[in-house]
Amino acid sequence: MPSRFRSMILEIAKGKFGIWLLVTVAFFEATILLLPVDLVLLAIVPISVYSWKRIALIATISSTIGGLSGYLLGYLGWQKLALPLLEQFFHLDFTMIHGRKDIMLPSYLIDHFSWLLGESKHLFEAYENIGFGLVFLFALIPFPYRLIAATSGAASMPVITFILASLAGRGLRFALVCCGVHYSYVKILRKWLLLPEKSPSSLKKPSQKTRR
Question: I want to staple 74 with a disulfide (CB 3.0 to 4.6 A). Which of 82, 114, 190, 206 is the partner?
């Protein structure tokens, strides 16, 4: 991503339209946009009037709705629409299995998540064994969510399963990012301003009872 475009996005994120930028990026990142949601969260969380929990919730819902559009793209037009887009954006290894192009899972996923994937080495093969767990994993880790959204539709995964797995995976991911940014920022700010570790309210002396 060009540095000028990244700087422009960060400037918008710090402004009054930051939360709407988050909704837009989270939605389209699940379909076609290459801008990671985490970058916007890093800019918004420290300065937003919303709590980090609400920001994480907004990002989760927006991303899941965007994922549904990717799901429909894969379900209704895998061969003509979704597959050509994926081949253009990603360097994927395809293998013909049962008359359909299947995607070879990256070796690092097979090595580190063999306890979940089992003997599965191809994406559609993994759907048949661990559909919910597969979507949850790819929604959580730094892996293109748009890829798993489109292939979920192509694999005819039950839409409710896709929604629940996406909410769980994206929700946990964004909550961890927002929580980490929030508390890291607070800690740095306290050191910079030489603020006490305890909140000002906890430093107040208890009021004495009025004498009758």
Answer: 82
